[in-house]
Amino acid sequence: MLELFEINYLDVEKNKKCEDIIKIVIEECYKIENLLDSKLYINVILTTSKKIKEFNKQYRNIDKETDVLSFPMFQKNELGEKIKNREFINMDILGDMIISIERVEQQAKEYGHSFERELAYMVVHSFYHLIGYDHIDEKDKVIMRAKEEYILNRLNIKREN
C-alpha cells in the first residue's frame, strides 16, 4: 500500500499514540473517499499552540491560536476531475494539516471526551477540508459534518470515548 501521509513534529515530542490515531483515521478517510490508489499523500504537522498561531497569522492573517489548519493543494473541482478520471501517475501532495496538540488536549477536556477522540476529529475534519469541503455555509456544514461523523462512527470513535 502506498504511504498516505507523513507526520512531522514541530516543537512537540514524537508520540506513537498520536501516530496510530492519525494512521487509522487517514486510512479510513482514503478508503471511504476511494483514494487508496490515488498516489496523494498528506503532510501532517503536529505542533504547539504558539506555532499554530504563527502559521495562522502568516498564512491567513488571523492573529490567534486555532486547533487545526488545512492547506489543500487542489481546488475541489480540480481534485474531483482527477479522482473521476483516475489521473494518478506520480505521487502528489493532497495538502498539509497542522494540528495543535495542546489545543487537542484542551478541547478534549472542555468537550468531555478523550484525547484520542479529539485528535481523530481534528484529522477527519482537516482531511475533508483538504478534499474541498467547507463549513462556512450551513448547507455545506451539514454535508461535511455528516462525512466526519460517518468516518468516526465506522472507527467506533465516539464522543464519550
Layout: helices, strands, pairs:
Layout: E1 5-10, H1 16-32, E2 40-47, H2 49-60, E3 68-72, H3 76-84, E4 92-100, H4 101-111, H5 115-130, H6 138-154
Helix pairs in contact: 1-5, 4-5, 5-6
If you had to describe this structure to a student in words, what would you say it looks like?
By secondary structure, this protein is an alpha/beta fold. Helix content is 51%, strand content 17%. The chain has helices at residues 16-32, 49-60, 76-84, 101-111, 115-130, 138-154; strands at residues 5-10, 40-47, 68-72, 92-100. The chain has a four-stranded mixed beta sheet with strand order 1-2-4-3, sandwiched between helices. The protein is globular, with a radius of gyration of 15 Å. The model has no long low-confidence stretch (mean pLDDT 92).
Q: Keywords for this structure?
A:
alpha/beta, Collagenase (Catalytic Domain), four-stranded mixed β-sheet, 6 helices, 4 strands, about 15% strand, globular
